[in-house]
């Protein structure tokens, strides 16, 4: 069995996730999200979907991007 990097649970169904140079062992998607999901540059929430990106900054939605001064990103065409 392996131990979850977040909660320390010793679990027989852990899995690993790799993003770039970062790899973690987790017992649930909740723990994986806590560590691996990017954070919105405006509101700080975890970005679980596609999100939007401008000038190297990730936002959970176009609204947060606009609130941070990005004017070209929109939710709908």
Write the topology of this structure:
Layout: E1 2-3, E2 10-11, E3 15-19, E4 22-26, H1 29-36, E5 52-54, E6 57-59, H2 62-67
Antiparallel strand pairs: 1-2, 3-4, 5-6
Quick recap:
By secondary structure, this protein is of the alpha+beta class. The protein is built from two helices and six strands; from the N terminus they run E-E-E-E-H-E-E-H.
**Number of separate helices:** 2
Instruction: Please estimate the helix content.
Output: 10-25%
Main pleated-sheet profile: 2 strands, antiparallel
Strand order of the largest sheet: 1-2
**What is the alpha-carbon Rg in Å?**
16 Å
Provide the number of structural domains. 2
Distance from first to last alpha carbon: 48 Å
Sheet/helix structural class = alpha+beta
Counting DSSP E segments of at least 2 residues, the number of strands comes to: 6
Order of helices and strands: EEEEHEEH
Q: Report the portion of residues in β strands.
A: 25-35%
Averaged pLDDT: 93
Low-confidence stretches: none
What is the global morphology?
Answer: elongated
Organism: Georgenia halotolerans
Protein name: Metallothionein
How would you portray this structure in words?
With 77 residues, this protein is of the alpha+beta class. It has two domains: 1-36, no CATH class; 38-77, no CATH class. Helices cover 18% and strands 26% of the residues. The chain has two helices and six strands. It has a two-stranded antiparallel ribbon with strand order 1-2. A two-stranded antiparallel sheet has the order 3-4. A two-stranded antiparallel ribbon has the order 5-6. The longest helix has 8 residues, at 29-36. This is Metallothionein.
